[in-house]
Design brief:
By secondary structure, the chain is of the alpha+beta class. The protein contains 4 helices and 3 strands, in the order H-H-E-E-E-H-H. The chain starts with a helix and ends in an 8-residue tail after the last helix.
């Protein structure tokens, strides 16, 4: 019985060993190859672009398309850094108590990867001397909070306006609109 299992193992191994050999005719033992498949490699990319209207699979971007997209992403990153630098230099003033309290707010760009969220920092406080003498501590505290909130909301609006350019450029890259100049 062991000779029979050994013989069966040898035959199965011999017939499956042709998977690792070259595909020349005559190499396969007892098998005939009636069809051959061919594989082509395209320079600088995967598959050539096909027509979606033909019902075929969607075209995959080639290497040159990917490099162009990478270059556009780098351009967007440099635009974002320039906008962040411009915003960081801008001083935004929040006011409260009929203009008697002014707080200067500064945009803090994200510090990747340690602090990925942008923020705001109060940079200076100006309080009218006459107002300071006449106001109670509770009213002064509430007015300071209001001035900080006003400054941060103004800063948020300015940041959103500046980032609209990047949003339009991103839409253009993703195929949703024309790029801004």
């Amino acid at each position: 019985m062991t000779k029979l299992t050994t013989l069966a193992t040898i035959l199965l191994t011999a017939s499956s060993a042709t998977a690792f050999s070259t595909s020349r005719p005559g190499n396969a033992i007892g098998q005939q190859h009636t069809s051959q498949t061919s594989t082509t490699l395209n320079l600088f990319g995967s598959k050539p672009k096909s027509d979606d209207s033909a019902g075929g699979p969607p075209a995959q971007p080639g290497m040159m398309d990917q490099l162009a997209m990478f270059k556009k992403a780098q351009e967007l990153a440099s635009k974002k850094n320039a906008i962040d630098k411009e915003l960081a230099e801008e001083k935004i003033i929040g006011t409260a108590a009929d203009g008697n309290i002014k707080i200067t707010v500064q945009y803090i760009p994200p510090q990747l990867p340690a602090n990925p969220s942008p923020g705001f920092e109060s940079d200076g406080v100006e309080i009218d001397a006459d107002y300071l003498e006449s106001v109670s501590a509770e009213d002064l505290s509430a007015s300071l909070v209001d001035a900080i909130r006003d400054g941060e909301s103004k800063a948020s609006e300015i940041v959103q306006q500046k980032y609209k350019v990047l949003e339009e450029d991103m839409k253009a890259i993703m195929g949703g609109g024309a790029p801004s100049s």
